[in-house]
Design brief:
- This protein is mainly α.
- It folds into three domains: about 100 residues, Fumarase C, Chain B, domain 1, CATH 1.10.275; about 230 residues, Fumarase/aspartase (Central domain) (Fumarase C, Chain A, domain 2, Up-down Bundle); about 60 residues, Fumarase/aspartase (C-terminal domain) (Ribonucleotide Reductase Protein R1, domain 1).
- About 60% of the residues lie in helices and about 5% in strands.
- The protein has a two-stranded antiparallel sheet.
- Helix 8 packs parallel to helix 20 and helix 15 crosses helix 16.
């Protein structure tokens, strides 16, 4: 007969290679806290419903807390022979307290147990990610506020387009991360559904109280369909989707950071503590962290694609394929948490080269649109004003000048509508100041964005505090 806890039906022991192949303990052991918390809540419910005795639940709860202490003190030997975190804990518990431990699994299956553990684990880690997003957003706001008057070129097609505030550029990433935070709030809501009590797929014949367990574990809702409860991995795919979007945003920021700190741009300089050198070229200061974050975005996106592919063809209810959800989600969690933490340091530590940014907008034609707007405000149709401005740019290129270098006589030859005030109109400071439409790059609009950002951060911290208070501790 098989030595497995489920081995009554089997006449042979499991092949050692098969054992190793199907075991998940090496990666799902990180859910030990959730597994023990879920088991304690389940045991209390069984006693409340008269399914096991009060004496049994006392022994179970004490035994599980002892196991928790052993794990946290690194004194627990996880055994691949018992496949996963659930069976490892249950075997140690039964060895320690006898029949009471063997009664713990009454009215549940590993199918709903693993679903519970994963829901609780992803729910907890989602809060951690939300906090790190907020810290990154706060870093962006702080740097934006310290450099609120720094002007830089704004780009389209990686060609200089119009002067903007550096703070405005940073606040665009703030806006992206604010949406990421909202997405993770949605992920949290889908994690916050309690599957325990669904059994293997069809519920149980025991008179259980699922509402009691949900309350014990601070779940907002309960799965209403047992098949859905054990087979649903939407919340994992949603987490991976939100994580992929987050990493895309960090990857875009990484690309710009890499460009900005290159000699060709020299817009920023990263702190020495956040860069590496070359083993051959002594002058090198490499933005390795930004490059790694950019690279790791593909890794997280890959986990999303893998999970979507795994689930797309599965019949209801539970299938062993679903064990593949763990490694991807665990790695994605580790990757985005580390990426956010290191990037927050990168942003806070970088030095902004305002002189180089200003030089870039002074020696350029990114004020050409403002020249066209100047004529349009004087009454010239914009399309004609656009053509005149384009002619002025071509003239400057041919004569090695900038728009601010043209004489009034040269301006007048292009249009009699030009007056002395054109020189102020094409100044980068004026170009920035005049873009005062809602959400624009003007000083006042960017200040408004920063003020709003402080309120958003305050609200996000409150949300994270509330959700963290709902996490279970044993």
């Amino acid at each position: 007969m098989s030595e497995k806890m489920w081995g009554g039906r089997f006449a042979k022991t499991t092949d050692e290679m098969i054992n190793d192949f199907q075991a998940s303990i090496e990666f799902d052991k990180r859910m030990y806290h959730e597994d023990i918390a879920g088991s304690i809540a389940h045991a209390r419910m069984l006693a409340k419903c008269g399914i096991i005795s009060d004496d049994d639940v006392k022994k179970i709860e004490k035994g599980l807390k002892n196991i928790l202490t052993q794990i946290e003190e690194d004194k627990f030997n996880f055994d691949v022979a018992f496949e996963d975190i659930h069976m490892n804990v249950e075997k140690r518990l039964t060895d320690a307290i006898g029949e009471a431990g063997a009664r713990l699994h009454t009215a549940r299956s590993r199918n709903d147990q693993v679903a519970l553990d994963t829901h609780m684990y992803v729910r907890r880690e989602t809060v951690s990610v939300m906090r790190l997003i907020t810290e990154m957003m706060e870093a962006l706001v702080n740097v934006a506020e310290k450099n609120e008057d720094v002007i830089m070129p704004g780009y389209t097609h990686l060609q200089r387009a119009q002067p903007i505030l550096f703070a405005h550029h940073l606040m665009a990433y703030f806006a992206m991360l604010a949406r990421d935070f909202e997405r993770f709030c949605g992920v949290y809501a889908r994690c916050d559904i309690m599957p325990l009590g669904a059994g293997a797929l069809a519920g149980t014949t025991f008179p259980i109280d699922r509402e009691y367990v949900a309350k014990q574990l601070h779940f907002e809702r309960i799965y209403k369909n047992s098949l859905d409860a054990v087979s649903d991995r939407d919340y994992i795919m949603e987490f991976l989707s939100a994580a992929s979007m987050l990493m895309v945003h960090l990857s875009r920021l990484s690309e710009e950071t890499i460009l900005w700190c290159s000699r060709e741009f020299s817009f920023v300089e990263l702190d020495d503590a956040h860069c590496t050198g070359s083993s051959m070229m002594p002058q090198k200061k490499n933005p390795d962290v930004s490059e790694l974050v950019r690279g790791k975005s593909g890794r997280v996106i890959g986990h999303l694609m893998a999970m979507l592919t795994t689930v797309k063809g599965l019949p209801l209810a539970y299938n062993k394929d679903l064990q593949e959800d763990k490694e991807g989600i665990f790695d994605a969690i580790d990757t985005i948490k580390f990426s956010l933490a290191v990037y927050e340091r990168i942003i806070r530590g970088m030095k902004v080269n305002r002189e180089m940014m200003k030089k870039a907008v002074d020696e350029d034609f990114s004020n050409a649109t403002d020249l066209a707007d100047y004529l349009a405000k004087k009454g010239m149709p914009f399309r004609k004003a656009h053509a005149v401005s384009g002619e002025a740019v071509r003239y400057c290129i041919e004569h090695k000048k900038w728009l601010s270098d043209l004489t009034m006589d040269e301006y007048k030859k292009m249009s009699p509508m030009f007056e002395d005030d054109v020189y102020d109109a094409v100044r980068p400071e004026t170009c920035v100041k005049n873009r005062n439409s809602l959400g624009g790059t003007s000083y006042s609009q960017v200040k408004m964005q920063i003020d709003d950002a402080r309120e958003i951060i305050k609200a996000q911290k409150k949300i994270a505090d509330e959700k963290e208070a709902m996490q279970i501790t044993v």
